[in-house]
């Protein structure tokens, strides 16, 4: 008789995969009668909290949505003509529904396994091509976090490539976006880089500079010829960085054609909503010769085992987790989902459509300026693209207030100037409202808006009109109808494995359920359409939501204060270390600059420490994977007078609750240092332990891991930091929003005051619907799932590190090194063979080479856990067939994995094993088979032959 599970009545019941009966069966395998006993053995008493979570009772999904509707209703959506790098845009419905709201896109992981990531890699290559074509530079990355941090990365790049012994300062034009200037300053100070801000309208100022940052068009809207200043900069040995508006570049001479070495900016206005500041895809493109200095990720084209073109992440030896303390950037997250949206916006509109949008935007700006001049208002700049700067001595605040009364937000530049920015969403009625705010009535926009709102480019300098083609690749011409676009998106989606298809058992990455109810509110206009610099009385709901979320996260972690500004885990790391640095400086101990980091740590830890101006000293780990306490004491003693901090991941990167964590914290504190606990593995702590209670001073939290913001194919992420009270004065702030953080902090970490605020409703909803009991149960479920998988796999693959009672935390490491030595089958072979079984591989060769790190999470049910374990056990049997000689060591299903349908259908099948063995190693695969689009990809070929924009269609022909 079939047994059915009992009804699941709460959100926590539906979030946590295994039913109570399933959990009982899993516990029986482990030899425990209940979860409490398992957790009691796994989690050290020394870190266990003695008080339950003081959070509101769990809301059901309907109640949570009602509450979010209340919060959204406290936001006021006005027409924003503020500009400052954020513009109104219309997201095509086919992209909104089939990318942003589609789990096939938003639940995918970073494409480190390229064979099952071909869809989103192609989408990212489209994005790179858009940026490269529009900027006029040959190489673009796969997206940065935002425009401000992209400019900061460009500054660091320019500093690296400077060949002078004393490179001098970094020069910034005063007409660069104000938030960008301050983000660059924040990043420059700990590196000892001097930043000089000056008005460069008349040319370079005196001094030695390794780089110059210009805005094109300027923050105040002006469009001027930057070629002369670029030439002056090159004559003086400086790199030229231009922050450029991609839409304007459809009409203006691209920076690469007038001498820019690096071009940065944001793709937000390519179909990505405001979201109160993010997430948005920043971009960074470089000239030939410095592409290997590119920070972040780069998608390139290589070939698979059959010689057919295939996409993958290029230059991976440059990845920061390998460079560690030699790293030049700590970026490990991109904004993939948003880059996909922006790239698809360009695919859908094509070059003609983008140009028409830009012409319409410019026409509205010209009409706006003409009406202002006609009404007696001085327009400061003769040449502009979309932003008009009006001079009204002493009246600016009055005009801005009058416009707000008419439903339009303008930019209060200063007491005498008002900025008005037009966008894709601007209509004639907006112009009428703006004119009325200036006291101009009775003016008809149609007087200047001819030809449907597009027309001449009279507002742009004649010698700066673009005459070079862009987006000539067929992909930007083939998908004009919604039907064609829909099918293109579906075709790319089908090439990938995301959480909507199977579990993604990645260690350290926590690929858990991103519930639909959590995702639903982010596209509501009251959250999506708020400009980050809108008056705060129009964002009351956002501020309340952010305040509640920060308070909840503080309660969960045991800290006094939380800042949600860092828009990636890497930025949270940097913010936390800058808080520590600021604390030491405030006490007259700026000489404390040594950061201790265990050898097992994720590479971004060391990279962040270097960026925070610290010297990295590595602490050894013992054979069990734990911090070597003797080595710790020795390093602390050696650096006692200069010790700034230790960075510890807890549970450890090896997936173990280290028993000595409280001793580690006490040892560092006794020497005057601070303790940074990396919150990447918080999914094993929530409800059971609080870092702020067991000895940590600061942590960053990955909201895209523990708190359910989806990974989006490699981003967006949010990495807020929690701090104890003494570090609160050193949280990040913002130049345009005093409410975002203290003046005593290091400055802004991200361009927007509250970072990627547009996706904060997701973790808010998760915490609200789980409630205190559900959050603890999720942690217990993660521990149970990891130990169940470890126990099932242990007879087949050694589990490398365990803690008390032979238990792991929330993840486990399967060790293949002995098998590799005996059979030649590597961890990579197993990873690729898992594709034939329909699975994304676990984390490959991190933190230990030759291993697979597995994290099942609490949201995978027992059926899926067993399906994965069955696949791993079946693969182990295949390895045994290699060991016994039944399979050839070089020609077997593992070495040749993954197997494409095209390969299986060839007339020239020469393998000793059968096609069915290759395609259907388990009978269940005949019911639902994932077919990889390419065979194993040659990584080295792609690095030797770097191609990082859309290849011609002919390259895919046989």
- The end-to-end span amounts to 54 Å
CATH architecture identity of one domain: 3-Layer(aba) Sandwich
Quick one: how many beta strands?
Answer: 26
Average pLDDT:
95
Query: How much helicity do the residues have?
Result: 25-40%
Q: Main beta sheet: strand number and arrangement?
A: 7 strands, mixed
CATH topology of one domain: Aspartate Aminotransferase, domain 2
The fourth-level CATH homologous superfamily of one domain is Type I PLP-dependent aspartate aminotransferase-like (Major domain)
Query: Helix segment count?
Result: 30
In words, what does this structure look like?
This protein is an alpha/beta fold and 958 residues long. Among the domains are: 546-765, Type I PLP-dependent aspartate aminotransferase-like (Major domain) (Aspartate Aminotransferase, domain 2), CATH 3.40.640; 775-891, Aspartate Aminotransferase, domain 1 (Alpha-Beta Complex). It is built from 30 helices and 26 strands. A seven-stranded mixed sheet has the order 2-8-7-6-5-3-4, sandwiched between helices. Strand 14 and strand 15 form a beta hairpin. Helix 7 (118-135) runs parallel beside helix 12 (336-374), helix 8 (147-161) crosses helix 9 (178-188) and helix 13 (396-405) crosses helix 14 (428-437). The longest helix is centred in the middle third of the chain and has 39 residues, at 336-374. The protein is globular. The protein starts with 10 loop residues before the first helix and ends in a 14-residue tail after the last helix. It catalyses: N(6)-[(R)-lipoyl]-L-lysyl-[glycine-cleavage complex H protein] + glycine + H(+) = N(6)-[(R)-S(8)-aminomethyldihydrolipoyl]-L-lysyl-[glycine-cleavage complex H protein] + CO2. The modification N6-(pyridoxal phosphate)lysine is found at residue 705.
């Amino acid at each position: 008789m079939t047994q059915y599970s009992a009804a699941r009545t709460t959100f926590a019941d539906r979030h946590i995969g295994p039913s109570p009966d399933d959990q009982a069966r899993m516990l029986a395998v482990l030899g425990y009668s209940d979860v409490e006993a398992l957790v009691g053995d796994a989690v050290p008493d020394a870190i266990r909290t003695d008080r339950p979570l003081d959070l509101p009772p769990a809301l059901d999904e309907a109640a949570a949505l009602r509450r979010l509707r209340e919060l959204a209703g406290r936001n006021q959506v006005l027409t924003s003509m503020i500009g400052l790098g954020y513009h109104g845009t219309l997201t095509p419905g086919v992209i909104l529904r089939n990318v942003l709201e589609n789990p096939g896109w938003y639940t995918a992981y970073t494409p480190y396994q390229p064979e099952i990531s071909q869809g989103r890699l192609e989408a990212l290559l489209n994005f790179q091509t858009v940026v490269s074509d529009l900027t006029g530079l040959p190489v673009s990355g796969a997206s940065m976090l935002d425009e401000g941090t992209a400019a900061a990365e460009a500054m660091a790049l320019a500093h690296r490539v400077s060949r002078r012994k004393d490179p001098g300062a970094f020069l910034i034009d005063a007409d660069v976006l104000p938030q960008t200037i301050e983000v660059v300053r924040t990043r420059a100070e700990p590196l000892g880089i001097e930043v000089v801000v000056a008005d460069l309208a008349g040319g370079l100022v005196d001094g030695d500079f390794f780089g110059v940052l210009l805005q094109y068009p300027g923050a105040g809207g002006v469009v001027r010829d930057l070629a002369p200043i670029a030439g002056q900069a090159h004559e003086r040995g400086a790199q030229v960085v231009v922050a450029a508006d991609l839409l304007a570049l459809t009409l203006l001479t691209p920076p690469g054609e007038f001498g820019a070495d690096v071009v940065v900016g944001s793709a937000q206005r390519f179909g990505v909503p405001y979201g109160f500041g993010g997430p948005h895809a920043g971009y960074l493109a470089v000239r030939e010769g410095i592409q290997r200095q590119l920070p972040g990720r780069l998608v390139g084209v290589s070939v698979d085992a059959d010689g057919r073109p295939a996409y993958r992440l290029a230059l991976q030896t440059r990845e920061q987790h390998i460079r560690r303390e030699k790293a030049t950037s700590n970026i490990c997250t991109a904004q993939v989902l948003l880059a996909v949206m922006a790239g698809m916006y360009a695919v859908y509109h094509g070059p003609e459509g983008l140009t028409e949008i830009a012409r319409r935007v410019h026409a509205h700006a010209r009409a706006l300026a003409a009406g202002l001049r006609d009404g007696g208002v001085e327009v400061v700049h003769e040449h502009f693209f979309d932003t008009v700067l009006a001079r009204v001595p002493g009246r600016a605040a009055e005009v801005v207030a009058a416009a707000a009364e008419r439903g339009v937000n303008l930019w209060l530049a200063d007491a005498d100037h008002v900025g008005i920015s037009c966008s894709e969403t601007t209509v004639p009625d907006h112009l009428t409202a703006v004119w009325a705010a200036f006291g101009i009535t009775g003016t008809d926009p149609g007087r200047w808006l001819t030809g449907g709102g597009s027309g001449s480019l009279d507002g742009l300098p004649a010698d700066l009109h673009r005459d070079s083609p862009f987006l000539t690749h067929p992909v930007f011409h083939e998908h004009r109808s919604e039907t064609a676009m829909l099918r293109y998106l579906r075709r790319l989606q089908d090439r990938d494995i995301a959480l909507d298809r199977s579990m993604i058992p990645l260690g350290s990455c926590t690929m858990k359920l991103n519930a639909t109810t959590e995702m639903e509110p982010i596209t509501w206009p009251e959250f999506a359409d708020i400009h980050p610099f809108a008056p705060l009385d129009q964002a009351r709901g956002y501020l309340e939501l952010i305040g509640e979320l920060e308070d909840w996260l503080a309660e969960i972690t045991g800290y006094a204060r939380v800042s949600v500004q860092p828009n990636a885990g890497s930025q949270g790391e940097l913010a936390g270390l800058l808080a520590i640095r600021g604390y030491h400086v405030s006490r007259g101990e700026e000489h404390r600059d040594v950061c201790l980091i265990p050898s097992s740590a994720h590479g971004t830890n060391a990279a962040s420490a270097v960026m925070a101006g610290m010297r990295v000293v590595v602490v050894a780990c013992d054979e069990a994977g734990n911090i070597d306490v003797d080595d710790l004491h020795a390093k602390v003693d050696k650096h006692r007078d200069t010790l700034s901090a230790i960075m510890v991941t807890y549970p450890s990167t090896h997936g173990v609750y280290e028993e000595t964590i409280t001793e580690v914290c006490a040892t560092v504190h006794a020497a005057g240092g601070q303790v940074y606990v990396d919150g990447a593995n918080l999914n094993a702590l929530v409800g059971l332990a609080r870092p702020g209670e067991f000895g940590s001073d600061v942590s960053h939290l990955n909201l895209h891991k523990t708190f359910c913001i989806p990974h989006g194919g490699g981003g967006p992420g949010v990495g807020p930091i929690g701090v104890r009270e003494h570090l609160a004065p050193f949280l990040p702030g913002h130049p345009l929003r005093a409410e975002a953080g203290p003046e005593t902090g290091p400055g802004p970490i991200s361009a927007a005051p509250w970072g990627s605020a547009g996706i904060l409703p997701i973790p808010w909803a998760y915490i609200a619907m789980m409630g205190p009991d559900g959050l603890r149960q999720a942690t217990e479920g993660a521990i149970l799932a990891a130990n169940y998988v470890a126990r099932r796999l242990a007879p087949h693959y050694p589990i490398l590190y365990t803690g008390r009672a032979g238990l792991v935390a929330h993840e486990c490491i399967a060790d293949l090194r002995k098998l590799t030595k005996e059979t030649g089958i590597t961890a990579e072979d197993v990873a690729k063979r898992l594709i034939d079984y329909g699975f994304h591989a676990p984390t490959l060769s991190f933190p230990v080479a030759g291993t697979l790190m597995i994290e099942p999470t609490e949201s995978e049910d027992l059926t899926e856990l067993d399906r994965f374990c069955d696949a791993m056990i079946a693969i182990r049997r295949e390895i045994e067939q290699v060991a016994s000689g039944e399979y050839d060591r070089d020609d077997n299903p593992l070495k040749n994995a993954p197997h494409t349908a095209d390969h299986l259908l060839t007339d020239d099948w020469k393998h000793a094993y059968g096609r069915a063995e290759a395609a259907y190693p388990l009978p269940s695969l005949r019911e639902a088979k994932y077919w990889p689009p390419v065979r194993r990809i040659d990584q080295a070929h792609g690095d030797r032959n770097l191609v990082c924009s859309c290849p011609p269609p002919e390259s895919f022909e046989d």
